[in-house]
């Protein structure tokens, strides 16, 4: 009887997951391959024509190939942000975990506050303007690092807690300093959680829409998510091209998640299992 109930619950869960995730994706694909007239109906009707190539070319060529520039900008921002995020978050988490005390508890509280309190756009703009980094890729990279630092630090700190302190002591006896101890002994052990941070942060930063919209305006600085405005206006929306653009900018993070989803789960649970 329990087995039947469990099977029924699993079946219901699978059906719900299919409806929630696959139905919208199927609707997006169907609309992306329709012509403009049929796409305005926004239904699940099978396309009468298949202007796939025409829609693809129109999206790529829109506004002087802004999508290609957006892909370059998003790639640069994602790679640089994730690289800085891994280094800073892992080092800070190591110090906070290995040096308990009032300062560490206060820093931990601030890290949790970074997860709870939403980022303020206007003060961030003021700060970037004061630093001369507003509307620049370096400023956007620093903003992404600061916005995702708290989550990455929590993952690294939980994993580092499972690493025995005897390794630190043995390395220090052998003459390792602080930086050498971390990068030669501790950091190689963080590979599972590092992969998780890289994958999760890459998807979040690549798909970020709000922050580039406010902190990085202008066609020359456009990111892939901002290109969705290319096919929307006050009086008209080209739904087929809009959904084709969504398909093109969804493929990279979707493939990343499909191929590395097991590593994401393994990295997020490794610290808890070892602990």
Automatic annotation (TrEMBL):
PROSITE patterns: ABC_TM1. The keyword DNA damage does not apply. One of its GO terms (cellular component) is plasma membrane. The chain crosses the membrane at residues 12-33, 76-96, 108-128, 140-160, 181-206, 239-260. InterPro entries: MetI-like (IPR000515), MetI-like_sf (IPR035906). It is found in: Cell membrane. The keyword Cell membrane applies. This is Carbohydrate ABC transporter membrane protein 2 (CUT1 family). One of its GO terms (biological process) is transmembrane transport. Residues 71-260 form the ABC transmembrane type-1 domain.
